[in-house]
Each structure stands twice: as C-alpha cells, then as structure tokens.
Amino acid sequence: MDAFWLSLVMIFIAELGDKTQLVALTLATCYNSWVVLWGIFWATLAIHVFSAGIGWFIGDKLPTEWIKFVAGIAFIAFGFWTLRGDHLDEDEKSCKTTVHPFWLVFSTFFMAELGDKTMLSTITLASTHPFLPVWIGSTIGMVISDGLAIIAGKMLGAKLPEKAIKIGAATIFFLFGIVSMYEGGSKFAFYIWCVAAVIIASTGYIFLRKSSETST
Question: How many CB atoms lie within 10 A of CB 165?
C-alpha cells in the first residue's frame, strides 16, 4: 500500500476511541466545530512532523527485517491499547478558558499527543516508509477521524458504539501487526519468535488488566 494511504488509514484507526478523539468531542460541545478542527489540524501537523522525522531517522539506522518485526509487535501492542480505551480527567472535560478557543485546542492536542498511541504509530510507520507521505497522511487521517467523531457525537448525542469501534480498530491493528512480523521475521530463529510472543502476551496482560481495573 502507498505510504500516504497506509499512514492515513492506520492513524485514522489509531485515533478511534483515543483520548485525543474524546477531547475533540468534548471541545466541540463548547466551541465552534470548525475552530476545533482547525486547531486539531495544526497541532497534529506540528507534532507529527517530529514523529515522522524520528521514525525516518531511526529507520535508516536499523536492518529492515528487524524494523518490520518490531513494528509488528508495536502494532499488536497498539491493538491492546485500543481495547483498553481512554478516559478523560475532570479538568479535560471543562470548557472554562481565558484564551482563544483555537489556541486552547492547539495546545491541548499538542500536549495530549506527546507519547500517545497515534504519535507512536506515526514513528513506527515512518521507520519503514518515506517521511513526507507519512507526515501528511498521518495528519489527514487524524483530522478525518476526529472530524467524524465530532459530527457523529453531535448527531447521536455522544452515544457512539464505543465497544464495537474498539474491537474493530484493535482487530485491524492485530492483523497489520501479524503481517508485519511475518514479513520481517519469517527467517528468524524460533527462540526470537518465542521472546516476541512473551512480550506480546505481557503487553496484552498489562493493558487488559488496566482496562478491567478502570471499569470496576
């Protein structure tokens, strides 16, 4: 798949049910939807230029097979992360502000994206694909995902099928992860696959345990 479209689709999926998507939905109930989307666009453009740059720089320094293999493990971890879901703190649900809504949205999204699933997904994609299409594709994918969440949330009163969205998005992450691991590690020794299986199982346990603790 072309790097632009792959990045657009994967980041669109990564953003489903993500914390920043919930923030977008919340802010859109307080401010004009176009202002929120405009703030999201510029914040995403700014943060993803660093993400894609980091991935591109790392990608030139490591063997392709290992990059694909580790990227596959990362995508499966993102799948578990998606299943766990996110929630908003009380401060993030507040509409109170003393600054212009655009700058509020921009700063909120920029800070929320640091170390977030979509940022890490962008780094992973850029490690095996060209910088520019990953940067632009990931930005557009995130804006589309947040835009649809805002529209759907306003139409349905924020009552979205959250569980179904999480399961669907996680399944796609798992499939991409398995394919990437196979492409990169098909000739790896058996013990390497065993180590990877332990890492994946541990990651799944940690994320799903946190999910069950949050729901209780």
Answer: 17
Q: Which one is predicted more confidently, 82 or 128?
A: 128
Instruction: Please state, in angstroms and rounded to a whole number, the distance separating the CA atoms of residues 118 and 143.
Output: 12
Q: Which is more confidently placed, 41 or 19?
A: 41
The mean pLDDT of 139-164, rounded to a whole number, is 74
Contacts of 86 (CB under 8 A, 6+ apart): 17, 18, 19, 22
Please, what is the average pLDDT of the chain?
79
Q: How far apart are CA 44 and CA 110, in angstroms?
A: 7
**In the predicted structure, residue 175 carries a pLDDT above the cut 90:** no
Contact 139, 48 (CB under 8 A): yes
- Which tokens go with 92? 């993030």
For the entire predicted model, the pTM comes to: 0.64
Name residue, tokens 């998507």: 21
C-alpha distances out from residue 198 to 64, 193, 194, 202, 205, Å: 22, 9, 6, 6, 10
- The domain ranges of the chain are 3-215
Q: How is 166-213 classified by DSSP, letter by letter? A: HHHHHHHHHHHHHHHHHHHHTTS-HHHHHHHHHHHHHHHHHHHHHHHH
- Radius of gyration in angstroms for the set of CA atoms belonging to the chain, rounded to a whole number: 18
Grouping H, G, I as helix, E, B as strand and the rest as coil, residue 128 is coil
- Can you tell me the distance from the alpha carbon of 73 to that of 109, in angstroms, rounded to the nearest whole number? 26
